[in-house]
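step: validate -> pass
step: tokenize input -> pass
step: predict -> running
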Amino acid sequence: MTRTTSKTAELLDIIRSQIAPKDEALKEARGRRDAVRGAADAFGSTNRTFASGSIAHRTANCPVHRRDAGLDADCGVVLDRRAYSHLGPDSLLGQGPNKVVNQMADHLQRELKGTYPKVKAKVTKRAILLAFDEPLSGGEDPTVDIVVGLDRAQLPGLWIPNTESDTWDPSHPEKHTELLTAEPATLRLVRQHAIRLAKAENKRTERPPLCSFNIEAFGWMFVRPGMSDAEALLAIWRDGAADLAQRLTPDPAQVSADIKVEDCDLALFRLRYAASQLQSALDHDDDAEWVRRALAPLFPEFVPPALDAFSKAQVVAESRDPGSQLRFGAGGVLGLSGALVNTSVRSFGEQG
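step: predict -> pass
step: emit ->
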């Protein structure tokens, strides 16, 4: 008896391969992040620095066809409260963050100029954004966001800046990284795969209905041992919708406020629709064309328009490759010459 391969799993793998950052871009993003951490340490009177965000969580996406979807590496620096006893809501003076954040921004720009001559530091609401203006060969130009934090007195987590109001808010980015990278490795990998796919669907529209951290929180809450990538993705959408219908998503670290959602009705609609489309694919898992049609509305740039064809993202990526043998066939249909046909797409189009 011939064993049927999961067509849903195959197509999700194809989508995931298209949203994955290139190794070169990831390496550069991590290198720039580490350089910023080193420069922050040289500010003086700091306790530690840390990596955070999607790159540290291994949930970053960077589609190769999107030059505007670059990597952003997150990190933080924690000030020594003995030197900054006047800062923070739990200090005697209760002073806000803006002065020290601006001092740190100036310091980082000066410190990094020797390695990155075009670096620019910009203070945002929560962090300092470092832009480098040194694109890689593929067009990626990773940026770095660094948060200036204070350990909270007698409580877990950090005080992090709100520069718009010159106040501090509680957060625990170090705990978030710990939770999302915890053992066992098999669960961690499936969770990361599902989160990345859910984030790609969330950003298929100009205004995503959820923030990326809300999706990561759903992944931590609902992905369980033994799930496949497809089952984990379904749990994020289906169980995430059920939970969001009852409440705003709580902070997994139980430190900051519940995660805000701008339009809860829209977010619920998108989550439920995505879950229903994925369930339909799984219900017809041996039918490649059914699976393709079910998932195409969720990932319009990454699902091919027909079996054994290229997606829009693959076409753009190939067109930018000087060595590509991409060509036009009759009626404008795109194809490749024999040796460079995408074997993963071809496999998806074959029947098990």
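step: describe -> The first strand starts at residue 46 and ends at 52.
step: cleanup -> pass
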